[in-house]
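Recall from the previous chapter that SMILES is a line notation for molecules. Here it describes flavin mononucleotide.
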Amino acid sequence: MELSEVINRRRTVRDFSQNKVPFKIIEKALRTGLKAPSYNHLKEWDFILVREDRHRLALTRTEEMIEEITNELEQAFKDYENLAKDMYLDAIPKQKRMILTAPELLIVVYKPKTQVSESKKIYDLNCLASVWCCIENILLSLAEDDVFGVTFIPKNTPGIKKIFSIPQQLEVAAIIPFGYKASHAKIIPQKEIQLESKLHINTW
Ligand SMILES: Cc1cc2nc3c(=O)[nH]c(=O)nc-3n(C[C@H](O)[C@H](O)[C@H](O)COP(=O)(O)O)c2cc1C
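With both inputs in hand, we obtain:
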């Protein structure tokens, strides 16, 4: 498949069918992740595949997860652009369910040089930037095989590290529920951006 086709095919999916993802597709995606550029050349990334329901449940208990849209929540997004508002109101009540029921759940871990809370300049975030290159490679590889995911960014990473005995010096970048798309999966249209409005040559 052409790279451009894979890039166009990759979309965030939060509603999954229960069909199992063959392990060779997962392995290929993780190997593709490990091909990503890395600021320190060391690719200090690890992957945890969560296969136990009790661990999934524990993950959902590390932070508050809203399960239904309330008037208050709708109000909170009332001034957002329509596409962003539609996305949040679709996504927020699905967070817990996708963690509990997606066919596969991947936790991507990285080694920060500087802790995010102590970062003072963009350079200090290079490890985080690199692990996101890895994550995009994973998502593209999955999309090539018709498998899709969603990057969930957890708030309570110390709580997650405790559940999985992740070494103290490492950090959680994202949790990625993934699988084949449900037939009713809702895909919010992507925002169309005209390159001409974003490209600045020589000066702003
Ligand atoms: C850094 C980052 C954080 C995100 N966090 C979440 C999240 O916590 N929960 C969620 O459902 N989606 C999350 N997303 C997915 C975005 O909502 C999604 O990428 C966006 O709506 C655009 O849709 P697309 O991926 O289909 O192009 C995140 C995406 C990125 C890049």
